[in-house]
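User: Thanks for the earlier help. One more: phosphoribosylglycinamide formyltransferase 1. Can you show the sequence and predicted structure together?

Assistant: Of course, both are below.
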Amino acid sequence: MLPIVLRRKEGSMKKRIIVLASGGGGTMKFLHRYSQIADAPYEIKSIIADRDCGAVDYGNANGMMTKVIKPWRSRIPEVVEDIRSINPDIVITNISKILPEEVFTCCKATFINLHYSLLPSFGGVIGFKTVEMAKEKQSRIIGATCHLVTAELDGGPILAQGAMPVDWSEEIESIEKNVFRIACKSILVAIMNLCDIKNSMASSDGFMYSPSLNFDDKLLNESFWASTL
């Protein structure tokens, strides 16, 4: 049976996405690669970073608009101006900075963030440090959360979550790999919902997602995941 590819409504415009980045851009690579193999209802228009990083390198190599703004804190008005100039629909805040309200209220775009834990657990922690903390607590279920950005750090309304049971006798690298993949699928669920894609599909990885997946994750084979590294 061929995989199901979800199509946009004929004539509908793709949602414009800006990514605010600090690191390698794994999640951004995932979203971009997915848009290349499926008729995704979004397009990554620009990457704005607070430092030279892998996300900027990837954007430059793939024809995206990129800009590095540093020092970041003293140039917030420039950040706001750059965001407004693109008129985005969605801004992904994968940046190692606490954004001032003047940034996430600067336009009508929906500002979203991705966190490698099941919020509210381990809020305010960056990257996979959340997995280390979950191991210290011997958490039985771990995962990822995509949420709206508000003035409360990691406290905005939740858009999507993915979860899995965990066996801490496994190699930590294997656990982090699964959390990363859950995070990627969770943010894609959230973005597809923001783009009014409301399908409900079963996941192929055996993990739990809420809302349910609204895309066919059978498209995401090992070769695909390797391209996001």
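User: Great, one quick takeaway?

Assistant: The chain is about 30% helix and 20% strand.
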